[in-house]
Amino acid sequence: MTTTEEIIKPLSDPEAAGHFKKAGEIADQVMSKLVQQCKPGQKISLLCSRSDNLILKKLNALDLDEEITKGISFPTSISFTEMAGYYSPMPGKDIKMIEKGDLLKIDLGVQINGYSAVVNQSIVVGNSETNPVTGDHAKLLSTGKKIMSEIIANIRPGVTNTAITKIITDIEKESGVQMVKDVYSHSMEKDIDEGVRLISMTGTKESKVEKITFEENEVYTLDVLVTTGNGKLHVSDHRPTIFKREKKRVHQLGTKAGRQVLFFVKRNHLDFAFHTKAFKSIDKAWFGCKECSKVGLFIPYTTQVGSKNEPIVGFKATIMVLAEETVKVTGIYEPPMFLDLTEKEVEKKDEKKDEKKDEKNEKKKENEKKKPNNNKGRGKGRGRGRGKGKAKGKGKGRGRGRGKNKKKKKKKK
């Protein structure tokens, strides 16, 4: 479990709130522009580059003292329907163009003077008043938004993280969706976007964290991921392009490329995530990042996916816990969303599916009774072994399971 002997309150610095708010304002402005550009035929690599360039342009236009750092705290990623996040391909390496009906999760982050504001919004391409979202996508979008709004409404000084987890799991049970496993919400500090004070988003034994009580002047990133699948993720075949330096790790690198990449990251990206497209030589960047990751100097943000054909919806917001109220720093801008199913209608639809399934099973049983039994001694059924898989991660503070999955081999019958 994580220890939290000293609670660091970034808002104790009188200038911190202003930096958080300004970073959040830019993040939401860029998100608004990006949502409008997510249209059929567009390339994700191009949209991500435009978004990052717009962040830098807006930051450079600010009238700040020279010693105040500013930049991208998380490179823009736009992930397709079954992806949990972190898909930001190199130019020319897109797996496909955006299509109408795609469910996209858009992540990005901005930092001013080390105070980071991150945001994630989910949209369905082509969604409009005349073309509303239906079915599972509508159910996930409405549930994800509900969970996020309830968390923000209930995080107050004196409230515990376990109380927030219960609110999440109660909504999860009512809605019939699954929270994605191994996802945590984090406290935030100056130069640190993943602090040690955590909120478990699933409430399972495996995701248990130290009980904490929220206090005023704290900042948190809330990360909500819901799916119609089983909630488990596995690493995809897509090469990671987003990395972050593990500053506590020290290692003497053996290659010149590795040392050059590490030096560049230390000088230009502080303790925040970066994209391999930031380097002049892409081949050298990839080789250096690979070497640094191998020895634990860099943490790769791998693109993880859920169950096949099962969509994932994500929302992320940065909040400030103040004495009078809890304030949204990002997520204030919300993309237009048109859903044609209320939660009750979705439930009725699911009930009808279950009824049809039961009727089908009953008819099957009746037909089996009528058939003569010529298979005596064969047993009642073959059964299907599910098997349990273990996942190795790099700690609970990493969010969406950036570690490697270790699968057990199935025994041959």
Automatic annotation (TrEMBL):
Bias kind Basic residues: ranges: 377-413
Gene3D superfamilies: Creatinase/methionine aminopeptidase superfamily, Winged helix-like DNA-binding domain superfamily/Winged helix DNA-binding domain
Record's compositionally biased regions (Basic and acidic residues): 346-371
Domain Peptidase M24: from-to ranges: 20-224
InterPro entries hit by this protein: Creatinase/aminopeptidase-like, PA2G4/ARX1, Pept_M24, WH-like_DNA-bd_sf
Region: Disordered, residue numbers: 346-413
Sequence similarity: Belongs to the peptidase M24 family.
Entry protein name: Proliferation-associated protein 2g4
